[in-house]
Each structure stands twice: as structure tokens, then as C-alpha cells.
Design goal:
A hairpin with a 5-residue loop joins strand 5 and strand 6. The chain has 266 residues and is an alpha+beta fold. It has a single domain, classed as Nitrilase/N-carbamoyl-D-aminoacid amidohydrolase. Helix content is 27%, strand content 29%. The protein is built from six helices and 17 strands. The radius of gyration is 17 Å and the shape is globular. It comes from Ideonella margarita.
């Protein structure tokens, strides 16, 4: 299956971000991609953390969700919709949700980010728990015969999440993200390649990449990584595509010559 990461440099304006997403979806579909993914916070990189509350939608209905469903159906693609804020049970909180639509525009999966990012190096500080409510359920779905596991950004640092997704083994792991420039430069590729190697499957990592209007700089480097840990495609910064293939023949060769998944004891 041909797959594509749709890298963005999202703004505080939802409509502008949706226009960019539509353009990238069309571009990827025209280039032959069958499964496409948008980055974390594709719809809004706000001026304040609580801007997410202002645009939060109810589960299953809202202009952002409707736009993605329409785009999936129009182009006949599997669309992993990055993340968008969905209303949480806790007042004043939202879930950072990754929703997936099939080529008919029907929603087939929703994963809520489990691990909430916090970072403070004296110059930069973030704490997602100020406005986010954590999820608690792992999610995988079937797309054209492939088992696809979902995760979001900071989840990448927790290999046990991916190990749990490998029952049964996934063929593809998707990681929408908005890594900071600092943490991305240090750890992004290292962690992604490790997840591909230890789980012997393709990883589609789709990032925010550049200097945002709110002053934040994200690392970018959206990637497609094969089951041996080789990088098929990478886009350093700016909006655009990183495109590659999920090859079952490659998966089978890797798992046959080094049957690490079969050797698991824990």
C-alpha cells in the first residue's frame, strides 16, 4: 500500500489549516497514496493552550470532523486525521483525539492520546495536562487487509504501548506528532526507528515542521520507516509529503530472517 505523511506548519486559524489539509490530501491522493495521515494539532496551533477548548467538537459531529470525512470520500482514501480536540467528560478539558475515516467517508477508529507531554528546560515549558484529559484505550484498525496501530506524539517514548498493539502484530504504526525542535532534534528519528525495528513493521510518522505564528518551532522530519529501520522518505521542514510503501513482502522477509516477535517471552 502506498502511504503518505502530510506535514504542516499549522496556524491559529482553523479555516486556513483546513484549506492546507485539503490541498495536501488532494496532492497525496493524486500521487497514488492510499492511506494518508495528518499531524498532531493539524487544525490549530493556538496562541494559548486553552484555545483548544474554543474549537473543541462533540464526538462524531463538527466542522473539522465533517471536513475530513468529506475529503476521505472525495478522494477515496484512508485518512488518519492527525488530532483534533474533542469534548471530554471533565469540564474544562478536551481529549486529543486521532480519528480515522475510510474511503467512503465513514469513521472507523478513534484513539485518544494516553501519555500527556510535559517539558521544562528553563527556556521552554509545556504541560498538556492543563487542558487535556488522557485517554486509556489502545486502538488498531483494518485498512485493505493491513492492521494499523494508532499513537500520538509523546506516546512514542513508551515502547510498552506499541508492544501491546502487537497482539496480533501490526503491519503499520502511525504517529501524528508535534515534537518541539529541541526534543525532535535529539530523539525523534532515534525513537521512530527503534519502534520500527523492535516491532518489525512500517512506521508512518507525520509531524508539524517549522516556525509557527505563535512563536513555537516544531521539528518536522516526517518519515516513512520500513520494518528493518531504514528510512524510505523524509521531509525536513515546511508543508508537503513524505511518501512510501507498506510492503508485506518486506515485512515477511524481516520477520522470517530475524523472528524476534516469535521469540518474545514477556
Amino acid at each position: 500500500m502506498n502511504i503518505a505523511a502530510l506535514q504542516m506548519v499549522s496556524t491559529p486559524d482553523v479555516d486556513r489549516n483546513l484549506d492546507t489539509a485539503r490541498q495536501l490530501i488532494a496532492q497525496a491522493a493524486d500521487a497514488g497514496a492510499r492511506l494518508l495521515a495528518l499531524p498532531e494539532y493539524f487544525c490549530l496551533m493556538g496562541l494559548r493552550d486553552d484555545d483548544k477548548l474554543r474549537i473543541a467538537e462533540r464526538d462524531g459531529d463538527g466542522p473539522i470532523q465533517n471536513a475530513l470525512a468529506e475529503a476521505a470520500a472525495r478522494h477515496g482514501v484512508w485518512l488518519v486525521g492527525g488530532t483534533l480536540p474533542l469534548l471530554a467528560a471533565t469540564p474544562g478539558r478536551v481529549r486529543n483525539a486521532c480519528c480515522v475515516w475510510n474511503p467512503q467517508g465513514e469513521r472507523v477508529a478513534r484513539y485518544d492520546k494516553i501519555h500527556l507531554f510535559a517539558f521544562d528546560n528553563g527556556r521552554e515549558s509545556y504541560d498538556e495536562a492543563r487542558v487535556l484529559e488522557a485517554g486509556d484505550t489502545l486502538v488498531a484498525f483494518e485498512a485493505d487487509g493491513l492492521r494499523v496501530g494508532l499513537s500520538i506524539c509523546y506516546d512514542l517514548r513508551f515502547p510498552e504501548l506499541y508492544r501491546q498493539l502487537m497482539h496480533p502484530p501490526c503491519d503499520l504504526l502511525v504517529v501524528p506528532a508535534a515534537f518541539t525542535y529541541t526534543t525532535g532534534q535529539a530523539h525523534w528519528e532515534l525513537l521512530l526507528r527503534a519502534r520500527a525495528v523492535e516491532n518489525q513493521c512500517t512506521v508512518l510518522a507525520v509531524a508539524q515542521g517549522g516556525l509557527h505564528e505563535n512563536g513555537r518551532r516544531t521539528w518536522g522530519h516526517s518519515m516513512v520507516i520500513d520494518p528493518w529501520g531504514e528510512v524510505q522518505a523524509v521531509l525536513a521542514e515546511g508543508p508537503g509529503l513524505a511518501q512510501g510503501e507498506v510492503s508485506l513482502a518486506r515485512r515477511d522477509a524481516v520477520r522470517s530472517q530475524l523472528p524476534a516477535l516469535a521469540h518474545r517471552r514477556l
